[in-house]
Structures are given as structure tokens and as C-alpha cells.
Amino acid sequence: MKLQLRIHESHINQCISANKAFVRSGMRWPDQRFQGEVNKVGVVPDSQSRWSNPNLKVYATEILVTDKLPDVKPGVSARQKSSSPTWRAC
Questions:
Q1: Angle at 14 between CA 17 and CA 10, to 5 degrees
Q2: What is the end-to-end Cα distance of the chain in Å, rounded?
Q3: How far is CA 35 from the centre of its chain?
Q4: Predicted confidence (pLDDT) at residue 26 exceeds the cutoff of 70
Q5: Which H or E run contains 37?
Q6: For residue 21, is pLDDT > 70?
Q7: Model pTM?
Q8: What per-residue confidence (pLDDT) applies to 75?
Q9: Phi-psi region of 62 (alpha: psi -120 to 50; beta: other; left: phi over 0)
Q10: Cβ atoms 72, 23 nearer than 8 A
Q11: More confident residue, 12 or 70
């Protein structure tokens, strides 16, 4: 499964491809943590996010979840945490 995130420009230098990341599903499995890795990091800011706030620059990032997930459907929200203690998603 692939997660699509938006990373703020102040944290994008800490996000490197092949870094480990941990994902939690918000409502269904709040106590379970799934492992993944950063697959792709955008090189230019996401243009869609600039409509609501032109000063906000975020970069599209993909995380591939490597653990087996229970019955998850597209569009489910999730939270992520990198193995690096200072890296956060928006």
C-alpha cells in the first residue's frame, strides 16, 4: 500500500528516500503500528496547496507500507512517524 503525504519545506531536507517510516491508522487500529519506507520525495513544491495559502510550500512524498495491512480501503486517513526523531509530516 502507498501513502501520499505532504511534507513542509522546513522538514523536507530530513526526508530521504529509503528511510524507514511508521504508520498508524487513525480510527480503526489506533494501537497498531505498520512499518514502511519513503519511496519518493518531490523535488518541487506542490502547486495545489498554494491556492489556499500562497506562502505555504509542501512537497509530495510517498511512503510504501511493507507490513501486511488488515482490510484497508483507499481514502483512509493515517498518521506517520519517521525513524528520524525530527522528521514530521504536515
A1: 130
A2: 20
A3: 12
A4: no
A5: strand 34-41
A6: yes
A7: 0.67
A8: 72
A9: beta
A10: no
A11: 12
